[in-house]
Automatic annotation (TrEMBL), chains A, B, C, D:
The keyword Metal-binding does not apply. This is Acyl-CoA dehydrogenase family protein. The lineage of its organism: Bacteria, Bacillati, Actinomycetota, Actinomycetes, Mycobacteriales. One of its GO terms (cellular component) is cytoplasm. Its cofactor is FAD. Residues 6-119 form the Acyl-CoA dehydrogenase/oxidase N-terminal domain. Keywords: FAD, Flavoprotein, Oxidoreductase.
């Protein structure tokens, strides 16, 4: 196994040499983040030995524990496209975790192997248009009914991340025994991928967030992931690692934005001195540094808890909720200050920080909006005294 | 003169009936905010009797004092395109103020009359690429030299708001007697409008923020606005009203976003009750209401100061700095909370709040970044004890 | 009637010359804020023509509308003891409002006249120890039962502001027809004033916040204020003016703290320049100035609403809730920054800002904690869409 | 060596059983925190095997590394008097660190041994009244001049923590070779301890913050700590551990306040449900939990850096600055929210959170005000790009 710090350095160098130039073409030049681009970046990541921080060596991955992932993904996150390049971007990151944890051997061979190796992409279909399931999973309206030969799924989803061009979709549907996860091949005629939704985060991944409809979508018994009725537990099991991977990636982008801002203000003058000599600019830089340090230490502490107690332990889930809430808000503050430190240029996409900020807005909402997470954090705290 | 409250009602109705449908076409449907669209909206505004809150009845305007403008523009600001529709959007709003205050009769007839009536648009060319003038006007690098027949201007500008399709540009250039403002016709062969910069705020106005070059740009003596060397004073004189108009407009958008959020959460359920019954959602709604009320009262107090003491008085300028800083940050918070209250839908441009937030980011930077304004506010406070 | 601005100047001068020296004796020298001190200050206030901003000329007051009160009380609030000196401090301010609005002529003569003239002090007994009434008035546990000759009150109260040394207490007690207010003479043998509670705000008023017990406390029919069962409405009617008066007073203290901080940092050096030249110190000064300006404009706008629509109008109550929430939090921020700007000296009571901060903490809680006010603000906003 | 987790449990139990009852006598009952009280608590701490987390077993200490100190002192910090009880409170904690690191064997025997064992207390005399040294050590005005037999010190200090009743004072004075530290016995006739300053934090320690004067104060050569002219380096070396110990202790108090608040709101009703069911109360609880988790992970990460790279390494100092800034502000927020969650009772010293808040205010100022720390953090960040 490669020592982690060396892998971090390699990842950092890979991002600088191979990803950041492409990022500029995408953000400034309007190049589309499609699968050709993804495959090209991932090929280079493999050549650089930095591909697969989330997956097992059996699938060409790096076999890292969560603590090591934290360091490597912070390095990969320095570019909006870095996590995609190393195959640690949503929804594939969470799906890799999930399939590795609960898929049976046949499912692992059929779905996990090509996903973990970057051969294909995947999607996750949970969220539904009102009055279906949003933050509250009990409102699930998509239904799977048992048939003689398997199951038939009906219902509408939206924000189905990664749907365009995916090889398969993990769909959560209600059964008489409770919510259940199904592995649905994308070429299933009952799975209809609709329009890509016009979300603010459109740069960082192929596949988009899509409207998806399941219309008499027939799947075999073997499509069931885990157990019938066990879907909510699986969704929970997927959450802590998925939330933490987002935190690692976005922390990397915050660190990059801080560097861009620091360089910008040391190179520019106003009122007779470099902007970097103005106390209020220094205050923004220091606040960024504090937010970054706190985010980093929370992520690493939670990673250690996952490694020691497992991702489904109550402690890991509590810490992941806290960390996701803090980091998503801290990253937003850092990116916002980086924009402000660029002055007028900060709202011009010639400078990447403008795009970074817009892309990051969804992070405070997906995988649990801050308010829902705070609610769940408080309930756990208050359970003690009750 | 129409009583103000009636005019406010009419403006509100006009925005609802004629502007908001077009706004949806622009934000969701991708319709371009060009001059055809502008002229159509302004024609309807004239028919509705709500055109011209910033200009004199002599030019078809409504002849309002600043206090009345505050109420009317808050109503107009309910849509991103409302201020444009009533001819109170940058940079024309500030240019109308400036020309009304300092242009000579010939200049008023030639430039102010068509601008105030909506016949043409204008641009303002102040900011320069580094190492030229940004927040610090003393760094002005564009130069005007006197010739036998007038002046010749050379230099590069960027963020020249409104440049594409404008009829004329007000250019600030250095002379041996100090910064000076020049009225340059857009068809002057020495004025070269370059690319439209890819700024985050691209929806709300035709004309964009452009790169502009002045190459041996010859103008006559009559092109001078105010006095030679008096350009900085004019820029200052333009600032207080311009900052306040922005505040009025954006406050209107914050009020709209709050309404959209309140409607959204009363109509949706989660965890067994309407989202509107969740305490943390109520907290966001209340924080919005407080920010809106504080912003509104600051704007109106500053408007009263302008009406009583003049826009160039020290008191008006101090209050306008305070108000611009507070309102730009309060509006940002309100829009951000409105996004959050929409959950996942809030970052999808099907819902307008996503676009509102992105468009608003520049407001904390243009016409004085918050940090530069805080510096100037503090210096005035500290002048007392010194 | 004296023009307001002249009265403001006189109040400012009175505070500077007569109150601030006494304040120093109290805060630094340990002098007790007793009734001798109060009577002495109020005598001087009468001599200076600044006594009674809240009361009618019939009682020796200044007969000001709410807008004028806002200006005068901001001036009086420059010292912790200024509002007491002019007879506008809790609970007498609210009791004066209440008695003026609803007491019958006999009650006005017996209770309002000596209170408004400063002859006596009063108390208000609403809050009860758990499980009695705190923020939720429906939990009222003190009971009044009708007898042949009047009423008998039984129950325990705490945080009874002003109880030590008061001439009478307004007590809220439950009757079969609902909560009712009673005027109880302090020498009633059934009214037992217990210990003064060790609250953080102990400097600014005689009378304290006390534990009080009503034990078979007999009062006559004439003790009823307003109507039987109308106590909650009266409490509500008392609230908006009382909240606003607190805002006016505390705003004055925030303004004073800002002046003290500005003077401090202009007179001290660190790292080779006056502290006032450090950008981060300027940022704190500017944030204070913004908070003060926003607080002032909110207070004045709400005062105008009270003058135009009445203190019990829905609009006035909504605005007073917003204003109290914002101002109590803004004042806290201003005082906290003023402490910080004093460095180590800021936490030493040789410098008054330390005491100001500690005294102010309760303002975010009494007369409605911020959270309860936010809840009520949100409900009103959300009532629209519902 | 005792395993850390067991020691943490023992410390927690010791604080609960022996310290918290005394804390109540001090905060509510007015008992004075004098040396009799300290010696009694420390005797019990020794009996419980929890005395001396900062010192060497040679002096009766526990011999912990910084990581273990973080866990133990968080437990000790659960009471305002806990750190004092285990001998980890200012200024003795920092003086123990300093003497252990740089004192010569004679000095260690004479000063460190009795200090580390709790036999005596000590003081530190750095800060001076204006125009002497505050945040800027270059403004040092106290002077030491070499004589035939040693040195003579003259100058005035204030905020000399621990001076009343100390056995010795570490004094920083200017020499021709630069700032130098001297060990001065408290019975030296040239050392005059003046009044105890009326600071907000008066509960948590004997000795106070005092005014001190050195008048022809003669000391021998052996009084020099470290090297002549090396005083600033020593002060810096003292800082990182001292800052971190404060963070550990105060984090413990924040955790306690959160528990008190959680218990309070689960046991009280308002508006028909336990306060703990109100969303805004839950929001405060969650924000506390997030602040506590971030503070804890920052402290432990910095502790690990100190253990690995040494307390005087640049990395340790940078991290300690970040951690002190974040933790001092996070603790303040937590305590403030805990007060708010107690409602009116929260500002009454019957409930300890009121006293906790007041005591904590100085933590954002001593050992480096947040603004000075932010400046130093920013400079380090900006050194990279320059």
């Amino acid at each position: 196994m490669t020592p982690v710090s060396e892998l971090v350095d390699r990842t950092r160098q890979f991002v600088r040499d191979h990803v950041i130039p492409v990022e500029r073409e995408v953000v400034v030049g309007g190049r589309v983040t499609d699968d050709a681009l993804r495959l090209d970046l991932q090929k280079k990541a493999k050549e650089a030995g930095v591909f697969g921080p989330l997956s097992d060596p059996a699938y060409g991955g790096l076999g890292l524990d969560t603590r090591a992932q934290a360091e490597v993904l912070e390095a990969a996150g320095a570019s909006l496209l870095g996590p995609l390049a190393v195959n640690a971007w949503a929804p594939d990151d969470g799906n890799i975790h999930l399939l590795a944890a609960v898929a049976n051997p046949e499912q692992q061979q059929r779905y996990l192997a090509p996903l973990a190796s970057g051969e294909v992409r995947s999607a996750i279909a949970m969220t539904e248009p009102a009055p279906g399931a949003g933050s509250d999973p009990r409102m699930l309206a998509t239904v799977a009914e048992e048939t003689d030969t398997g199951w038939v799924i009906n219902g509408r989803k939206h924000f189905t991340t990664g749907a365009q061009g995916a090889a398969f979709t993990i769909c959560v549907a209600a059964t008489t025994d409770g919510p259940t996860m199904f592995l649905v091949d994308q070429d299933n005629p009952g799975l209809r991928v609709g329009r890509r939704m016009p979300t603010l985060d459109h740069t960082s991944a192929p596949g988009g967030h899509c409207e998806v409809e399941f219309v008499d979508c027939e799947v075999e018994e073997s499509a069931i992931l885990g157990t019938v009725g066990g879907g909510l537990d699986l969704a929970q099991a997927r959450l802590a690692p998925s939330r933490l991977v987002f935190c690692m990636n976005w922390l990397g982008l915050a660190v990059r934005a801080q560097q861009l801002a620091a360089e910008h203000i040391t190179g520019r003058q106003s009122f007779g001195v470099p902007i970097a000599d103005h106390g209020m600019a220094q205050g923004l830089i220091a606040d960024n540094e504090i937010d970054i340090a706190a985010a980093r230490s929370l992520i690493r502490a939670t990673a250690a808890t996952i490694d020691e107690h497992g991702a489904t332990s109550g402690q890991a889930r509590h810490e992941a909720s806290i960390t996701k809430t803090f980091v998503s808000e801290a990253v937003w503050r850092v990116l916002d200050r980086a924009v402000q430190l660029h002055g007028g240029l900060g709202v011009c996409e010639d400078y990447l920080v403008a795009r970074f900020l817009v892309e990051a807005r969804a992070f405070r909402i997906y995988e649990g909006p801050s308010e829902v997470l705070r609610w769940s954090i408080a309930r756990r705290v208050l359970r003690g005294p009750r």
